[in-house]
Amino acid sequence: MGTRYKVVETSEVTDAVLEQILNEWTARGWRLDALHFAMRESSRRPAMAFVSFTREEADGAAQDPAGAPGRGTTPIT
After folding, report:
1. Residue 39 reports pLDDT greater than 60
2. CA 76 → CA 4, 13, 29, 65, 66, distances in Å?
3. What is the mean pLDDT of the chain?
4. In terms of Cα–Cα distance, which of 61, 70, 59 is closest to 24?
5. Does 77 score more than 50 pLDDT?
6. What is the secondary structure of 3-71 as a DSSP string?
7. Residue 75 binned pLDDT confidence (cut-offs 50, 70, 90)
8. What is the pLDDT confidence band of residue 74, given thresholds at 50, 70 and 90?
9. What is the pLDDT of residue 58?
C-alpha cells in the first residue's frame, strides 16, 4: 500500500467554502492532512487556502476520477 496525496486550492477563503471542501473530500475517502493559508501583506484575511488530504491505496490503484486539476467542488454563489 502507498500513500496518495490530494491538494485542493481555493482563492475563496470562507468558512462555507472550506467546510464544503472538507466534507466533499472526506466523503470520498480522503483524510485531512493539513490546511495552509497564503496571506496578503495588506490584509489580515488569507488570499488563498491549500487543503491537503491523504489516503492509503494499493500500489497501482486507479486515480480518483475527481482527482483532475482544479478544486473539484461546485462554487458557492
Report:
1. yes
2. 27, 11, 22, 21, 18
3. 85
4. 70
5. no
6. EEEEEEEES---HHHHHHHHHHHHHTT-EEEEEEEEEPTT-SSEEEEEEEEEEEE-TTPPPPTT-SSS-
7. very low
8. very low
9. 86
CA-based nearest residue to 37, from 17, 55, 65? 17
Lookup result for grid cell 496578503: 40
Residue written as grid cell 493539513: 34
Q: Which residue do the cell numbers 466534507 mark?
A: 23
Instruction: Look up residue 30 and give its three cell numbers.
Output: 480522503
Residue keyed to cell 458557492: 76
Whole-number Cα distances in Å, 31 to 42, 44, 61, 63: 33, 28, 17, 16
